[in-house]
């Protein structure tokens, strides 16, 4: 479903963030991308989503070079929640989650139903009209995931979704992601520390200094 062929990324300042990465992700995968801070995890996720262009190599999504893939449909098919959350603090949860749909010009009823559904999924239905700044960090993390789910993406990219969370909240977020994966969503998730999982993940990819140094498939 997603294939990286000989992908390198060198930032304009000369930093080599990724060095000849070859990877394949299949439909239904639940893959953990593990590596220390600065290893290249975020860069890899951005490249998979077409947000950063590789300096070298190609990324195929459904067999098509993502640089040629229709941008809008790529963004709908690949949901992402990055660590910095990028939520608007003084707007409601509803506004934050529905923003992508408002841009698309969906009807209010359509938007409302969809937002209600995704918020129920992340167990935040009752916080729909709260301002984001009134939420705890774990709740914000879930709002960010809810927003990523609004288009029912077939791939979900999560950048350190459990970073800064206490063990219980992290566990809850992971459980939820596992359920999504069981329903068929392909999940690629980065982390800099080993987390405890239930039956998942199906794969662990280790990355160090921009290179893939280990692949384990369970
Ligand atoms: P991780 O997500 O594993 O912490 P990143 O992909 O964020 O790693 O970063 C990989 C390397 O690229 C690091 O050395 C980081 O400092 C560098 N880097 C990331 N983004 C940029 C950028 N926009 N410009 C220059 N260097 C960057
Ligand atoms: P956590 O235990 O996850 O750190 P908090 O102690 O930050 O959670 O928050 C506990 C609850 O209080 C959450 O449900 C959150 O929505 C609510 N809350 C936190 N800060 C505010 C605030 N400034 N105004 C209103 N509600 C808040």
Automatic annotation (TrEMBL):
Family to which this protein belongs: Belongs to the ABC transporter superfamily.
UniProtKB keywords: ATP-binding, Cell cycle, Cell division, Nucleotide-binding, Transport
Keyword Cytoplasm part of the UniProt annotation: no
A Gene Ontology BP annotation from the UniProt entry: cell division
Single GO MF annotation: transmembrane transporter activity
The name this protein goes by in its record: Cell division ATP-binding protein FtsE
Signal peptide: none
GO cellular component, one term: plasma membrane
Summary of the function given for this chain in its UniProt record: Part of the ABC transporter FtsEX involved in cellular division. Important for assembly or stability of the septal ring.
Naturally occurring in which organism (per UniProt): Caldisericum exile (strain DSM 21853 / NBRC 104410 / AZM16c01)
Pfam families: ABC_tran (PF00005)
Stretches assigned to the ABC transporter domain: 2-218
